[in-house]
Structure formats: C-alpha cells, structure tokens
Amino acid sequence: MQPYTPTDDQIRSQFVSSLMNYFKIEEDVFLRSHIDELIRPIAVTRYSNFLHRLSTRTLAFKTGIEKIALIAQELIEEQLSPLAQEAKERTQKLYNLMYDLRRSITEERNAQHSALARFENVKFTSIKRADSAELLLDSLDIDVIRNVTKQWIYDYVTLDRGVFEARIEREYTDLLLERERAKNTQSISHATQAVLGAKRL
C-alpha cells in the first residue's frame, strides 16, 4: 500500500489553519478565504521559511492578517523571475500614472471636450517628470498602451483595479518575452554567422 501524500491544496488548507491558530484568528469563511488568497502564489516548499520569518520578525502594531500579508508579499516577490518582476513594477508605475492623469482630467471644469476625449488627446510619448526633461514612458510602455487602447485604460483604471493590473501585467509580460526571444534569436544568428565566417577563413 502506497503512503498517503497530501496534495498542495490540502497542505495549503492546513497551513491556513495553522496561521489562523498561530494568530488566534477566529474561524470565519471570509477570513480563511482571504488568507488562502494571500498565500496561494507561494510554493508549498517555502512554508517553513514563511513561519520562520513570522516568528523571528518584529512587526509591532500590525494585526495577524497584516503580518501574513507582509511576509507573503516578500516571498512572492522573491519567487518572481527578473522578467516577471519587471512586468509587475511597470504595471504599478503605469497604474499610478494613469490613475492620476484620469483624475486630473476629470476634475477640469468648463472643458470644451469630454473627459474621455481629453484623455485620448494626451500625447503619452511626451509626458515628462516634473521639473525634468526625463520622459515617464518608454517604447515598451507605449506599446502596452497601444495594445490595450487609451479608452480601455480610461474605463478600467478607476473602475476595476484588479482587472486593470491583470491585463496590463500580461501585456508587459508578453512584450518582454517577445523582446527576450528576439534578442536570443539575434545572438544565435550572430554566433552562427561568426562560425560560418571562421569556416570560410
């Protein structure tokens, strides 16, 4: 008879119970679901590391759930590949910029055009930092904006942050992967040409 091996879902469920017991969080379906969602992206093999950080870290003035969220975020970021990390950071930057831009446009009074029209007329390739000539958006950011459209950004940046971030992060990831593949293909091509050139000699 083969030994029983629990699934990752079962281990995660038990880990959620352990965290709730550790912090004396009263059993509640919504709190359990929230904690499960916080730790879901973390590999099961890192649960012991999770507990070690919780037990050795001084996190004064934070509730149990806030401590769980903080450690979970640290571990999730550490698990990300450099490419995934870049996509996530770019997504946050674009969200903050677009949210502020939309808000400032909708707060304008006595404008001749609708807020959406004014938003779509903004030349994103020319947006600069305050008191600086440095552009805020590069060609990758512009490609993402072009793919999702200005209207979609205008609609979702305040309507549903989760949907906005999920789609934008996916767009960044896809474009970053495309660039990585193109770079690798170019490197292989150069290497092949160098070998062929050496053979001719």
Kindly summarize this structure in a few lines.
The protein is mainly alpha-helical and 201 residues long.
Q: What are the SSEs and their pairings?
A:
Elements: H1 8-22, H2 29-39, H3 47-56, H4 64-79, H5 82-106, H6 115-120, H7 139-148, H8 150-159, H9 161-200
Would you give an account of this structure?
With 201 residues, the chain is mainly α. Helix 1 packs across helix 2. It is globular and about 65 Å long.
Order of helices and strands: HHHHHHHHH
Relative helix content? over 70%
Strand count, sense and barrel status of the largest sheet are:
none
The end-to-end span amounts to 66 Å
Please supply descriptive tags for the structure shown above.
single chain, globular, mainly alpha, 9 helices, 201 residues
